[in-house]
């Protein structure tokens, strides 16, 4: 059991990752990152996924519940306010986001270099699972953008959305196997490339 | 036309794309809004063009602006245009924009229905995928209704990529269109067993989420999920299912009983924190649902608490947080187990992380007892002093009050201490919770009669030093306590030592700076105080003193008459006139005290907050009907009594108390009396134990609280609670001493501190005051409970649908085309065991020489049985007394022989065995969390009892395989576990299991039995890896590190640990040297011990029992790519039947066909080698001819078989 189970779902200590000297880069796969079994499901109900930088500038917002644009901005601001005042070495869970969802919900976040990745989820979900999911998300971004940094997210928010859409669908986790996600993204990019001759490489604006 | 297109693309070249827009915004930091509005204008222009590429580019930019907070709903129609583009690139842009800004209120959304349907049926899987993704974000009831059938068809799409998306989106469809749930459910259930793990987990995800909301409808799926849980290797599926079981157990305690053992085993064995954590959570849920009736559930609780302690002690703050969170769940039902970890939790209070501190505070609530309350509160008070930030300090304050006041102050032994704590809290700067403290003071003073004297003295001191409290800021929340102080001093003025002094304090000019509602209470209570003074002075025959008091009133009241607050002004005027009248009477020498006191006669009893609500409405009374014609603006007061009681401080809703102003109360009291007299429906409360305390001044049954003079009662501003702690300790000490002596019966509790209180245990510390906590009044025939009304707006309520009823014709999904035949399949419920069994039986049917008779009946019977959840649940074996396996064969054999005879009687025998097999199968799998494919091996079980039963199946199984019709002699018991090593401390037995899914992995189960009287811990297993065979170690550890055994062994206990080994080549047997190191601890100390062993990987252990049909077997032999070998063993005395059984059991073969004394057998290795045997028995010899795809493997196998047969 030290074997199979641990490897299947070891919650990798990716927390340490964020403290490493990764000023420009967001993430690199941690050396012994466990290979996940394909298609593990995660939490069923993710209310919102937010990415903002250290100054609270939104880099991606995905709400799985309808909110007006104003409310969305308020939620982002409030979340940033809550998350940014926390120390680096405290836990990654946060209760008390008032705007989004109330008592049943939790904010689960990770801080990578200049960016905060925040998932607002149902209280019934596996907290450690979500932390892993964020890590998978960041690693996938890293793979798709080759050493992702904040600029990639700034200029290619549409691509980030497309990647996210392969992982989370309608607030439910669709796929957590990074290889599977990357395969699908690559296939879609290829399809896109074949359709248009003025194809814009994602690296063009770096 | 061509020109137009060229023009379009030229235009496009000059348009900004998303990157340009972003760059532009970054370059216009100063006038961002202006720049963006310019861009929006440009976008509007672009949207007007015909070129779809331009439009898509514009929509893409809009999506970005939406993120920045700009409303883009005006472009909804353009977004739909882009969605309908033929190119995937544009379509994706369109769907993304739609998913970001469409919602149910978007009116154009109905235009999308046909487009989406078209995309769903598109030949390109990515078109379909992108449509599904988009739809998942903006599905409306209409879309759900119109598209439900299309999506359902996609659930059977050939591509797993589409299937998993379709399955997942069904959840959203169900939510929006609940009618679709029943027709779609069978297919959804089917997907639980989809070959693609992604689809399977999506289905688990959806069903778990559905079941979490309406668990009772999914109880019948429990066996299926149980099976999934036992067969899944995917921790994420496991977590989901385990969470689901947590939701199901409250509905079905028997399920909990079934779960508890596999779960505790998982807790023991898993090293994945997320899984461990969820298991602990579900075990907690199970234990809560069982609460009692489980003989050994305290062990499970201990295990959970122990594991949680490990989490809390972890340096990872996340684990610490989760540990505390789960701990608080245990706390609710098993506070005792948590209390023993008080040290740890108090330690967490000092954590730098506020989330963790708050969690720890939550836990404290349940940790207090009479013994430690003072100590804990003292610690919290220290934290209050240290805390930075008012938010956390306020949290601490509310927690202190919560902790102390919980369950009717049951932990408070000394209310003097509590009052002084409250007084100390009033010194907090800038707290918002003054009203909370005030409410507590009032509550305690009213409900604990014995404390009133002390409370009054404290409150008068507080009033005296009111300037300190109220000085800082006018609106300081803390001045609320003066409200309570004034009321208590007024209401219980007979306890005041120096009423005049208090009266003066309350009439100081400074008081007029207090908030209005507090002044109003002051005025009212000044009169009460005054009445008490009059009474006192008249009784003492000091008319001058009485007149002095009157004069003081007349002098000071005018300051209130001038108050800007209407309430204060009005009351003050009334009171002033009254006092002036009294003054006149006094001048004439008329005694007035009686009459003035009569104003405030009557005891105030606390009323329960819901008392009014609970009065049942008498039959025939329609509260909604108008009695008279409706007046213009009336409101029904009766429905909301709270509104009246709390108009001043709506937040003070903790407990309803008569702390309202007196006049109002008096008025209401009168009104109520009137009403009572007239109202035939009024439910009269039982006579109050205390009536009119004025009439009975020294009521016998109120214990008199003697104030210990060592307590400096009158020094305000000095923290006193500490002294109480000391005093309390002394008191308890004395109590204990006295109890040790021969106790004399005394009137208990009359004199605190000096009385001996008989009949209390050390656990149960007698309170210092005879606490006479007045319970809140309730109407006699109050309704027992107020149901938690479900929120009618709850979207999940609509999904509360019975899924077991057969599907009616009217329930079909609206279809445009022809309905898929599959969907009309009847919704007959099948449970896991049923399906499994019937499959199994079908297989058997194909086997030659199977019994024909009665099979049909049997299938029927079993099916019926499987359908019944009750049955599934009732087959739970009795919970094990100690979940530890003890594989001692001698003990088993006795049982086996006797029970075997029963089992062998007639054709009945297969039945119980099948059942048992299923159960055992499931449990075993859960326990190890991995599927094991060799049934026989699954049966090495946790309890002796079960073991005995199972053991006999080991033998029966092969018999069956052999399909013998004749009666056989009983087969001696067999165990696949063999001795690995043994010394005086520990005995190791091992078995190797392979699994079809992992072609280069085997699991070695080692049963460790503690044979000594020492406690074995820190066990670590290490082997010397060979090139071919390696032990799987946790990440990050080197090849020389051992793998820790995840449990400890108390004396005499055994438990099983599993280790995974990876193997490259399986064609040769292997031996690995290894060592088990451990610490043996007994009374004399701990020693470090070692036990060496040699782990033998036989080739047979790589084989997996695989059934094979004779035709397939024949083909295999004919194919000719198998190499051949044979052996012959002489001197065999065993019957052929038993011989075959032995081969089946030890070498994992299955019998294909048997004719007389000749049988063909088949097995398969984990790496896919076929092995075929022909076993022939002569007089006293056996010859085995083997064919195998690998010659080396075959010869190794035959060697092993030879060794086995030689023993026969």
TrEMBL record, chain B:
Question: Compositional bias of type Acidic residues: which residue ranges?
Answer: 774-791
Task: Locate the compositionally biased regions of type Pro residues.
Answer: 876-886
Provide a GO biological process annotation: Golgi to vacuole transport
Q: Tell me the membrane topology, using the record's own terms.
A: Peripheral membrane protein
Pfam families (UniProt xref): Adaptin_N, AP3D1, Mu_AP3
* Gene Ontology cellular component list: AP-3 adaptor complex; axon cytoplasm; endosome membrane; glutamatergic synapse; Golgi membrane; postsynapse; presynaptic endosome; terminal bouton
What family does this chain come from, according to its entry? Belongs to the adaptor complexes large subunit family.
The protein's name: AP-3 complex subunit delta-1
Source organism of this protein record:
Nannospalax galili (Northern Israeli blind subterranean mole rat)
Its lineage opens with: Eukaryota, Metazoa, Chordata, Craniata, Vertebrata
Q: Which gene encodes it?
A: Ap3d1
């Amino acid at each position: 059991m030290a074997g199979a189970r641990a490897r299947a779902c070891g919650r990798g200590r990716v927390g340490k990752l964020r403290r490493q000297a990764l000023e420009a880069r967001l993430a690199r796969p941690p050396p012994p990152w466990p290979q996940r079994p394909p298609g593990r499901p995660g939490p069923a109900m993710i209310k919102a996924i937010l990415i903002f930088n250290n100054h609270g500038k939104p880099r991606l917002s995905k709400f799985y519940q309808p909110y007006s644009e104003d409310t969305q901005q308020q939620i982002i601001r409030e979340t940033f306010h809550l998350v940014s005042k926390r120390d680096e070495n405290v836990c990654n869970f946060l209760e008390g986001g008032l705007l989004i969802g109330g008592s049943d919900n939790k904010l689960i976040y990770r801080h990578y270099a200049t960016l905060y990745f925040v998932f607002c989820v149902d209280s019934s979900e596996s907290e450690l699972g979500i932390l892993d999911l964020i890590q998978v998300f960041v690693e996938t971004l890293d793979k798709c953008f080759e050493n992702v940094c904040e600029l990639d997210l700034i200029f290619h928010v549409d691509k980030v959305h497309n990647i996210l859409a392969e992982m989370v669908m309608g607030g439910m986790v669709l796929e957590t196997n990074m290889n599977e996600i990357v395969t699908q993204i690559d296939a879609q990019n290829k399809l896109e490339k074949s359709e248009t001759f003025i194809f814009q490489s994602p690296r063009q604006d770096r | 036309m061509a020109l137009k297109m060229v023009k379009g693309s030229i235009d496009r070249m000059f348009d900004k794309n998303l990157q340009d827009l972003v760059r532009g915004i970054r370059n216009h930091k100063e006038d961002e809004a202006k720049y963006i509005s310019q861009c929006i204008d440009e976008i509007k222009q672009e949207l007007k063009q015909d070129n779809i590429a331009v439009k898509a580019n514009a929509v893409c930019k809009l999506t970005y602006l939406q993120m920045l907070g700009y409303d883009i709903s005006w472009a909804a129609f353009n977004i739909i245009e882009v969605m309908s583009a033929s190119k995937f690139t544009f379509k994706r842009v369109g769907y993304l924009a739609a998913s970001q800004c469409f919602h149910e209120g978007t009116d154009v959304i109905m235009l999308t229905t046909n487009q989406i349907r078209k995309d769903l049926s598109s030949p390109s899987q990515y078109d379909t995928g992108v449509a599904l993704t988009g739809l998942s974000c903006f599905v409306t009831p209409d879309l759900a209704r119109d598209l439900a059938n299309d999506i359902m068809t996609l659930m059977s799409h050939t591509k797993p990529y589409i299937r998993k998306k379709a399955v997942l989106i069904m959840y959203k469809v169900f939510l929006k269109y609940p009618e679709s749930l029943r027709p779609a459910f069978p297919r959804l259930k089917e997907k639980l067993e989809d070959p693609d793990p992604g689809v399977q987990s999506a289905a688990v995800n959806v069903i778990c989420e559905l079941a979490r909301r309406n668990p009772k409808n999914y109880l019948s799926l429990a066996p299926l999920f149980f099976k999934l849980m036992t067969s899944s290797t995917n921790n994420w599926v496991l977590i989901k299912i385990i969470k689901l079981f947590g939701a199901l157990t409250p509905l079905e305690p028997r399920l909990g009983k079934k779960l508890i053992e596999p779960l505790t085993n998982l807790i023991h064995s898993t090293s994945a924190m997320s899984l461990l954590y969820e298991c602990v959570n579900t075990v907690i849920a199970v234990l809560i649902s069982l609460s009692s009736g489980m003989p050994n559930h305290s062990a499970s609780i201990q295990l959970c608490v122990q594991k949680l302690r490990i989490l809390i002690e972890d340096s990872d703050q996340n684990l610490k947080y989760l540990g505390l969170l789960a701990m608080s769940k245990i706390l609710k039902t098993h506070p005792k187990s948590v209390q023993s970890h008080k040290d740890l939790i108090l330690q967490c209070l000092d954590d730098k992380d506020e989330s963790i501190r708050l969690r720890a505070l939550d836990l404290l609530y349940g940790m207090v007892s009479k013994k430690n309350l003072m100590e804990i509160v003292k610690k919290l008070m220290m934290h209050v002093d240290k805390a930075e930030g008012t938010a956390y300090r306020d949290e601490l304050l509310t927690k202190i009050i919560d902790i102390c006041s919980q369950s009717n102050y049951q932990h408070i032994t000394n209310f003097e201490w509590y009052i002084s704590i409250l007084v100390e809290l009033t010194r907090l700067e800038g707290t918002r919770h003054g009203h909370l403290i005030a409410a507590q003071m009032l509550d305690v003073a009213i409900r604990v009669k014995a404390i009133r004297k002390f409370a009054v003295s404290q409150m008068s001191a507080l009033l005296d030093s009111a300037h300190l409290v109220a000085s800082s800021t006018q609106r300081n929340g803390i001045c609320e306590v003066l409200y309570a102080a004034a009321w208590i001093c007024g209401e219980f003025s007979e306890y005041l030592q120096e009423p005049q002094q208090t009266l003066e304090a309350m009439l100081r000019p400074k008081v007029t700076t207090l908030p209005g509602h507090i002044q109003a209470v002051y005025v009212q209570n000044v009169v009460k105080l005054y009445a008490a003074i009059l009474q006192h002075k008249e009784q003492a025959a000091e008319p001058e003193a009485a007149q002095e008091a009157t004069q003081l009133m007349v002098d000071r009241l005018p300051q209130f008459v001038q108050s800007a607050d209407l309430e204060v002004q009005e009351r003050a005027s009334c009171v002033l006139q009254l006092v002036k009248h009294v003054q006149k009477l006094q001048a004439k020498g008329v005694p007035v005290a009686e009459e003035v006191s009569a104003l405030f006669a009557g005891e105030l009893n606390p009323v329960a907050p819901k008392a009014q609500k609970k009065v049942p409405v008498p039959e025939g009374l329609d509260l909604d009907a108008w009695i008279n014609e409706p007046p213009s603006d009336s409101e029904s007061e009766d429905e909301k009594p709270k509104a009246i009681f709390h108009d001043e401080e709506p937040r003070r809703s903790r407990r309803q108390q008569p702390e309202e102003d007196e006049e109002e109360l008096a008025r209401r009291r009168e009104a109520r009396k009137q009403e009572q007299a007239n109202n035939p429906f009024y439910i009269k409360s039982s006579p109050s134990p205390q009536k009119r305390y004025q009439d009975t001044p020294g009521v016998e049954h109120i214990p008199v609280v003697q104030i210990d003079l060592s307590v400096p009662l009158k020094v305000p501003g000095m923290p006193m609670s500490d002294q109480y702690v000391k005093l309390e300790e002394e008191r308890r000490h004395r109590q204990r001493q006295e109890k040790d002596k021969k106790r004399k019966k005394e009137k208990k509790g009359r004199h605190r501190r000096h009385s001996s209180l008989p009949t209390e245990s050390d656990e149960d510390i007698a309170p210092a005051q005879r606490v006479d906590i007045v319970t809140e009044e309730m109407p006699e025939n109050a309704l027992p409970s107020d149901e938690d009304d479900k929120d009618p707006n709850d979207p999940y309520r609509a999904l509360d649908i019975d899924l077991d009823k057969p599907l009616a014709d009217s329930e079909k999904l609206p279809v445009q085309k022809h309905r898929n035949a599959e969907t009309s399949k009847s919704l007959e419920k099948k449970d896991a065991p049923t399906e499994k069994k019937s499959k199994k039986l079908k297989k058997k049917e194909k086997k030659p020489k199977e019994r024909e008779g009665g099979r049909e009946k049997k299938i029927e019977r079993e099916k019926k049985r499987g359908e019944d959840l009750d049955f599934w649940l009732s087959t739970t074996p009795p919970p094990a007394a100690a979940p530890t396996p003890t594989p001692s064969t001698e003990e088993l054999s006795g049982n086996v022989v006797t029970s075997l005879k029963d089992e062998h009687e007639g054709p009945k025998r297969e039945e119980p065995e099948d059942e048992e097999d299923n159960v055992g199968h499931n449990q075993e799998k859960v326990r190890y969390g991995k599927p094991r494919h060799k049934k026989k091996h699954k049966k090495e079980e946790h309890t002796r009892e079960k073991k005995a039963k199972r053991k006999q199946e080991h033998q029966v199984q092969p018999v069956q395989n052999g399909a013998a019709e004749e009666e056989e002699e009983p087969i001696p018991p067999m165990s696949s576990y063999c001795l690995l090593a043994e010394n005086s401390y520990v005995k190791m037995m091992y078995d190797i299991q392979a699994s079809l899914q992992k072609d280069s992995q085997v699991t070695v189960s080692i049963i460790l039995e503690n044979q000594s009287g020492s406690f074995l811990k820190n066990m670590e297993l290490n082997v010397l890896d060979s090139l071919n065979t390696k032990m799987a170690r946790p990440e990050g550890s080197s090849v020389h590190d051992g793998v820790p055994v995840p449990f400890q062994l108390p004396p005499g206990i055994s438990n099983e640990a599993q280790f995974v080994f990876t193997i490259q080549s399986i064609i040769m047997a292997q031996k690995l040297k290894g060592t088990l190191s451990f610490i043996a601890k007994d009374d004399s100390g701990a020693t470090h011990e070692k036990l060496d062993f040699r782990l033998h990987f036989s080739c047979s252990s790589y084989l997996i029992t695989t059934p094979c049909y004779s035709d397939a077997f024949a083909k295999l032999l004919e194919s000719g790519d198998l190499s051949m070998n044979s052996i012959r063993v002489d001197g065999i005395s065993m019957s052929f039947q038993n011989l075959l059984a032995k081969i089946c059991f030890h070498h994992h073969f299955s019998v294909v066909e048997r004719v007389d004394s000749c049988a063909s057998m088949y097995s398969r290795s984990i790496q896919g080698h076929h092995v075929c045997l022909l076993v022939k028995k002569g007089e006293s010899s056996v010859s085995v001819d083997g064919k195998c795809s690998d010659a080396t493997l075959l010869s190794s196998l035959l060697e092993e078989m030879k060794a086995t047969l030689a023993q026969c």
